[in-house]
Write a structure and sequence with these properties.
By secondary structure, the chain is of the alpha+beta class. It contains 5 helices and 5 strands; from the N terminus they run ααααβββββα. 13% of the residues are buried.
Length: 151
Amino acid sequence: MVAQKEEMWRKALQAHGLRLTPQREAILSYLAHTRVHPTVEEVYTTVRETFPHMARATVYNTLNRMVDLGLLVELKRNDGAVRYETDDSPHANAICLRCGQVWDVPLLSVPAVDLSNLPDFEVRVTHVELYGYCARCRQAMRREKEEFEDA
């Protein structure tokens, strides 16, 4: 499955005129194998271990092109942080409002949506987000509250 996704991404990028340099191949490989929702900086830091002279712009350009082609989905937070969704299987994203960590949560069914008022609209991506606080952040918030109340 990972190899198929990576190959599909290669073909799509090549079909749209993007050269597959060794650096871009490493970016694709990282994205295909990761289970996290990486930021540009996380992709850059990981791939730079193999290609120390790679420009950060290579990562930005590759990710932006993949988003433009519908191969990745940008997960934009209110604070401006951007993570990238690499999993195209039906799932929701649980997002911690405090630390920004993102977890995949399997969807038991795709939400039913009435598109009758948008007759010419073609759905390409269904994206469900769940916002809340992870266990680590809830614990930290309890400690902070206790410290504030004790002060």
